[in-house]
């Protein structure tokens, strides 16, 4: 059902210029996607760190007072250093990420071959972004591109909103979902007078990482939270679920392609079909994923066995292109047919 | 600084009539408070369970399909039962509470001696409330009493809103903060055209249980989230912080009396003073709590060493009455003077 691009990966870390000479690009992945002036535009998450020195772990933090990104080196034999995940470490009891992400435009005329900008488009700048900004989703509403992204800091993981008309200048609109929340995707049109968005809270106490819906009058204030779907223990989506990009309207309902992981942190993609008027009501859902990590660029990398899309473009011919992160370090593309997905749902 | 009522505890579980003959009241605590028609009205959290049978742990769940509350008994020697907290247990991998809470009116003409209604005022009824509804806060806005409360279910801990004019009939307004979020208090007036509320997300990943602010145009949709204060490791509020009731406007700023726990789960009360126009900006904060568990009814009970207020009444003479849960099972009262609290802040 899934057709990977033959030129995958379409963006690798090696192809992306660091934002400054003392940094190196670790990952270029989890891109938001849209169409603009005849081109496909990606906002790629570019994860950087200070150039590695032997015997040190390196990361960087944005200082919210100076707005500067400052390198941090810690000796590998420091007894206060603890690390058991390639994406994070603990030093003196404080959690850090091993990289700091910004968002950067990449463009393509044919939707398959991309040119990545030399400079960042959106950099961390607020106190909620001192560990970086990640995993954007783009929704076009009334001529404006709304970009939501995860903002990471010691205060928690929140989701913020920005707006652009041209991918040249951006207006920051603040935090729209407080912690712990990521994997937000805003629907492309109102339903019965209100905007809708998926969100994915992570719970400390009761509950599992699940897809919820909220609605809004103005895209900034969100309420009327409703549970949509949760993990199904023992199945392919048994550990956590979260939305991909904004859903597609079909005659049968809102079609959302979502990611899920099993207890081994293997991330696959399935679909859920939701009522057009009451989108918290589930009509059908994938019994099996239609897309799993199989290609070598998906099974090897920073986090092996991950396919994760937050960019999706409707090709207008009954097919969709997913732009996805492979193994948490490269950007890839693949197409699926809407009718085939709908036919596969139960 | 704190003056406890001489008739504490003012409501005990033994004084409250169970909602049905096969149930017993375990706790009557954590009451919201306001004034209505010359009386002080409390909405008390009443926690019940099926009458205990020897050799069993008992709880009850609200079935969201039938709206009925159904008892659940599990044998204490069942190998699938795990319990190490008096408030919850795990059975076959699913978490349960050891009681189910509803909200019930208690009234007083003198503000010190209360009569508790024989019947519940608000019972669990939605799928988000199947484990009960808890810890209400009451804010009077434009002639309506807005009641927010924690709604507990296997889907997570959320905060919902209800409205009443008379404490006789209630209108449910849905979930205003998704999981994991509780300890919400809505300000009594708009600031620069927007409503404000404290909220207290619990984070699974980065961050500590902290007080945040959100604002709203309509009390239902909330956005513009801002961090206010977090735990201060090594101090009296080192583990978690959360608001009490709605803040009091003073000439120096918004005065919020907040609860905090240390790593030993000892809950005390301190204060924070916030900017009148930009209430996420901290002017001053308690170096030491002004109220800690000391009386025997605070140091003994379901959860010893807890004072936790979500009800507060302004007496109009420079003093405030805190209605607080003592040791998580009884309702008590105490007064403080605003000028003394303000003078104690740093």
List the helices and strands and how they pair.
The structure is a homodimer.
Chain A: E1 3-4, E2 23-36, E3 39-50, E4 56-63, E5 68-75, E6 81-85, E7 88-91, E8 94-97, E9 100-108, E10 115-116, E11 132-141, E12 144-153, E13 156-164, E14 171-177, E15 181-186, E16 195-201, E17 211-216, E18 223-229, E19 240-243, E20 248-250, E21 253-261, E22 267-274, E23 282-285, H1 296-299, E24 307-314, E25 319-326, E26 330-337, H2 338-344
Overall description:
Two copies of one chain form a homodimer. With 346 residues, the first copy, chain A, is mostly beta strands. Chain A contains two helices and 26 strands. In chain A, the strands form seven sheets. In chain A, strands 19, 20, 21, 22 and 23 form a five-stranded antiparallel beta sheet that branches. A four-stranded antiparallel beta sheet of chain A has the order 1-26-25-24. The radius of gyration of chain A is 19 Å and the shape is globular. The A-B interface holds A 95, 127-128, 131, 152-158, 174-181, 199, 201-207, 210, 212, 214-218, 220-227, 230 and B 95, 127-128, 131, 152-158, 174-181, 199, 201-207, 210, 212, 214-218, 220-227, 230.
């Amino acid at each position: 059902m899934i057709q990977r691009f033959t030129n995958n990966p379409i963006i690798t870390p090696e192809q992306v210029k660091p934002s400054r000479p003392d940094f190196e690009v670790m990952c270029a992945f989890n891109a938001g996607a849209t169409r603009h002036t005849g081109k496909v535009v990606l906002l790629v998450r570019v994860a950087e760190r200070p150039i590695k020195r032997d015997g040190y772990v390196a990361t960087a933090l944005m200082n919210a007072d100076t707005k500067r990104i400052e390198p941090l080196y810690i000796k590998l034999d420091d007894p206060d250093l603890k690390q058991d995940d390639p994406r994070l470490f603990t030093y003196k009891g404080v959690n850090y990420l091993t990289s700091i992400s910004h968002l950067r435009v990449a463009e393509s005329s044919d939707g398959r071959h991309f040119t990545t900008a030399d400079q960042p488009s959106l950099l961390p700048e607020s106190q909620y972004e001192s560990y970086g900004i990640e995993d954007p989703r783009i929704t076009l509403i009334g001529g404006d591109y709304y970009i939501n992204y995860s903002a990471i800091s010691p205060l928690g993981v929140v989701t913020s909103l920005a707006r652009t008309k041209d991918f040249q200048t951006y207006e920051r609109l603040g935090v729209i979902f407080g912690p712990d929340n990521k994997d937000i995707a805003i629907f492309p049109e109102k339903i019965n007078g209100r905007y809708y968005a998926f969100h994915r809270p992570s719970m400390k106490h009761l509950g599992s990482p699940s897809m919820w819906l909220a609605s809004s009058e103005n895209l900034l204030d969100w309420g009327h939270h409703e549970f949509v779907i949760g993990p199904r223990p023992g199945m392919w989506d048994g550990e956590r679920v979260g939305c991909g990009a904004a859903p597609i309207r079909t005659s049968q309902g809102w079609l959302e392609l979502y990611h899920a992981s099993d207890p081994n942190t293997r991330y696959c993609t399935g679909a859920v079909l939701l009522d057009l008027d009451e989108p918290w009501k589930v009509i059908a859902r994938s019994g099996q994923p239609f897309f799993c990590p199989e290609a070598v660029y998906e099974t090897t990398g920073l986090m092996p066995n991950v396919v994760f899309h937050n960019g999706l473009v409707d090709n207008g011919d009954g097919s969709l292109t997913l732009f996805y992160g492979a193994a948490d370090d490269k950007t890839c593309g693949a197409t699926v047919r809407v009718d085939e997905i709908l036919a596969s749902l139960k």
